Amino acid sequence: MTDAAAAVRRAGVLVASTSAAAGTNPDRTGPVISQWLQQRGFTVDLRITADGPEVGVGLRQLLAGEPRLILTTGGTGVSPTDLTPEQTAPLLQVQLPGVIEAIRRRGEAVTPLSVLTRGVAGFAGSCLIVNLPGSTGGVRDGLAVLDPLLEHLLEQRITGGGHGPRH
């Protein structure tokens, strides 16, 4: 594999959890996301940070490594420290609100609380960033939504080609 091909398969996972960052609670979502990404051929840089402005610092650090994808988990609710969307949105040049809407719809089939997630999704340069909820169920819903979209999104952003089949 060439260096360019390897670069296309780098991903970051940013867990926004003050308690996990402090070591008082285990991170249950980062490993789920990391495993999913590894199964799709990505090398993963997993980081845990406190909620709030630290999320923006973590995102910028991950972006410096030029990944193709960053998935965050946590910090998308309504708590005063849930600032993941506010830290992510300024980094995005292209927003993908439909991705987040689909994640909310999928979760709503299980719990009405899924509509409270305020995540954002889009591209920071050529890197796709998606905010997933901080629950394992919300993460599973988000990954299920991303599964059929991910390769198409990444290909579109790099090459501009690959318009999928129309129904």
Automatic annotation (TrEMBL):
<dbReference type="Pfam" id="PF00994">
    <property type="entry name" value="MoCF_biosynth"/>
</dbReference>
<dbReference type="InterPro" id="IPR008284">
    <property type="entry name" value="MoCF_biosynth_CS"/>
</dbReference>
<keyword id="KW-0808">Transferase</keyword>
<keyword id="KW-0501">Molybdenum cofactor biosynthesis</keyword>
<dbReference type="GO" id="GO:0006777">
    <property type="term" value="P:Mo-molybdopterin cofactor biosynthetic process"/>
</dbReference>
<dbReference type="InterPro" id="IPR036425">
    <property type="entry name" value="MoaB/Mog-like_dom_sf"/>
</dbReference>
<feature type="domain" description="MoaB/Mog">
    <location>
        <begin position="12"/>
        <end position="153"/>
    </location>
</feature>
<keyword id="KW-0548">Nucleotidyltransferase</keyword>
<dbReference type="InterPro" id="IPR051920">
    <property type="entry name" value="MPT_Adenylyltrnsfr/MoaC-Rel"/>
</dbReference>
<protein>
    <submittedName>
        <fullName>Molybdopterin adenylyltransferase</fullName>
    </submittedName>
</protein>
<dbReference type="GO" id="GO:0016779">
    <property type="term" value="F:nucleotidyltransferase activity"/>
</dbReference>
<dbReference type="InterPro" id="IPR001453">
    <property type="entry name" value="MoaB/Mog_dom"/>
</dbReference>
<comment type="pathway">
    <text>Cofactor biosynthesis; molybdopterin biosynthesis.</text>
</comment>
